[in-house]
Amino acid sequence: MISKAEKRRQHKAQRQVEQEKRRAGKRARHDQKRKQKQYHPYRYLSRNQKEVAKRLLDGEVTMISSASWAFFERFLVFLHQVGFFEVIGVEGKQFYRQMIEVSLLVMTYSAKVLLGIASINQVPGRLFRDTALLLLIGYTTEQLASGFCNRGYTDKQKPMHKNTLADAVEKLNAEEVAYILNEAVKRLAARGVFRSSQGHFALDSTDLETTEHYRGAGKKKVTVRKRLPDGQYVEIEEYLYGFKLVVIYEVHLRLMVAAQVAPINQHDTNFTRDLLQQAIDNLGAGVIRVLLMDMGFLDGEMLWRIKHTYHIDFVVPSKDNMRVTREARSFRERKADGEYLFRDERPGDGPKQKGHLCLFGVKEVTAYDQYGDAEHQKRLNRKDFQPNPINVIVVEAWDRHTYRPGEEKVFLTSLPIDTPLAVLDCYDLRSLIENCAFRELKQGWCLAKFPKRTQEAVRAHVFLTLVMFTLTNAYRTDIGQELAQAGIRRQRLAWEEANKVLVLAGDYYAIFDLEELLIILGCEPQICWRVDPLDVRKRYGLPDPPGA
Fold first, then answer.
1. Which of 388, 421, 206, 426 is nearest to 305 (CA)?
2. Is 83 in the same domain as 164?
3. Are 319 and 407 found together in one domain?
4. Is residue 170 located within the same domain as residue 47?
5. Which residues are CB-contacts of 349 (< 8 A; sequence separation ≥ 6)?
6. Could you tell me which residues are beta bridge partners of residue 440?
7. Which of 56, 62, 202, 542 has the highest local Cβ count within 10 Å?
8. What count of other Cβ atoms lies within 10 Å of the Cβ of residue 59?
9. How many Cα neighbours within 13 Å face the side chain of 228?
10. H helix runs in 158-285, sequence order
11. Which domain holds residue 414?
12. If 0-12 CB within 10 Å is exposed, 13-18 middle and 19+ buried, where does residue 231 land?
């Protein structure tokens, strides 16, 4: 006979099975709806300047708004051409109750990134009030007026509460945000964006510091040199909390091609193989020809794989305590022989000798025992061990500074070193990732301003920022070219000065210059700086003003 307790357990288990079936059915219905209804910006509206002008004269205007971000319409066309709106249609596995499409949420957060909004608390005042921009990225007038539901604070903050956007970003899992970046790069590559690439890519990382209160943040000990009030310096140990961004970056086109986010305490060498494979998958074979690496990625087995498996050349600094470094420095007093040792020099400019370089290259140095595949590493201590040769570059003098013996800068490379200066100039391109990528992302794109204090929110914010940074630099219109040269911060100032308004009339919208709008309404200014009144009247079939 079954006891009452056993009956309760069976009944509870049965309820759980039924609940799981209902959840599965709900997810299946949502997936079906998502497939049937693909996201596209301004899908509810059609641009028709003449129709809106006609309705404007008839008094049939739904809404009018400033359109200082009217350029975004052309940027949306570019995104449509590269297939970006298909990319952001991710499943959203962590979204159990969806009242807003995931793709619309992703596009809304992307607009936040483009606007340079640092804090999620600034979103209601700076993003949600820009109705013109929201209409362009896919919101309806009803959603802007009433929000998506009557729950929470939507009666005060339309179209959604700021925390709804922050929560949505946090719910995007690692696979989904990585998919958005990787697919965007693949589509850019498929449309020939990388055809002008010279094949120089930088592999580097940057720390994203937080506090210890961020969930999932790493912790590492660092030694900091500080100056005391008496002028002396001391070294103290501190702990850093946060995350690490590791990327592969095209240094000439300024495009991110692969990225990973991890706790700050993880070593750089853990990411090289996966990142490089992902970059090759995104771009195709043969696009990456030279990989410029930071010292943190120095690993003999990985260097061998880069050269002999992926057929990519590399340049990486060597460490002071390595035997190959000491071996390379020992050639300083030797003369160039034109076969194994090559010297090169560049004269400097001005009294400070800016740009002066004196260096030499040595071919096939065999002091780097770790340079080889996995089987090579197993034979390190055997008598019949044969090291693999590698080329080195040694810098003796830079600008007015001449390095003392034993302090020269040493670089390992698989490139030919017949002209050492060319190899060093190639490696100098790696500095572009510091100035044109990491610094620009942190200062101009608010990369280190996270919407929530969790690892998931940090990762999604970073990936979406990288996506918009890459797509913006790939934007091929005149505005896109100007943006790539001037930088996002300077361009934003120019965009904010635009004298445009967006007029909505039913299912149609139009973007008018203020002078153009006044001419249509019959209030032609005596002086027009930006438009020709005759062209405007001809375009919209307007009569000449009285007395003309």
1. 388
2. yes
3. yes
4. yes
5. 355
6. none
7. 202
8. 7
9. 6
10. 162-171, 174-190, 272-283
11. 306-429
12. exposed
Q: E-strand spans in 287-436?
A: 290-293, 313-317, 341-346, 357-365, 390-398, 401-402, 409-413
Cα separation, 50 vs 71, whole angstroms: 20
The answer to whether residue 504 is domain-embedded is: no
The pLDDT score that the predictor gives to residue 157 is 66
* CB-side neighbour CA atoms (13 Å) of 538: 5
26, 156: one domain: no
Instruction: Give CA angle at 84 (472, 175), nearest 5°.
Output: 100
Closest CA to 161 of 130, 128, 115, 133: 128
List CB contacts of 163: < 8 A, sequence separation 6 or more.
120
| Tally of CB atoms within 10 A around 307 | 19
Encoded amino acid at 529, one letter:
W
Q: Which of 187, 248, 179, 249 is CA-nearest to residue 460?
A: 179
Q: Which two tokens stand for residue 418?
A: 């017949």
10-residue block means of pLDDT along the chain (548 residues)? Answer: 74 81 70 56 74 86 69 76 86 74 89 90 86 80 75 62 91 94 94 90 96 94 86 88 96 94 94 96 95 94 95 95 94 89 88 82 93 88 88 90 90 94 93 91 93 96 96 68 53 58 83 87 84 89 76
Q: What is the pLDDT of residue 483?
A: 44
pTM of this structure: 0.81
From the CA atom positions of the chain, what is the Rg in Å? 30
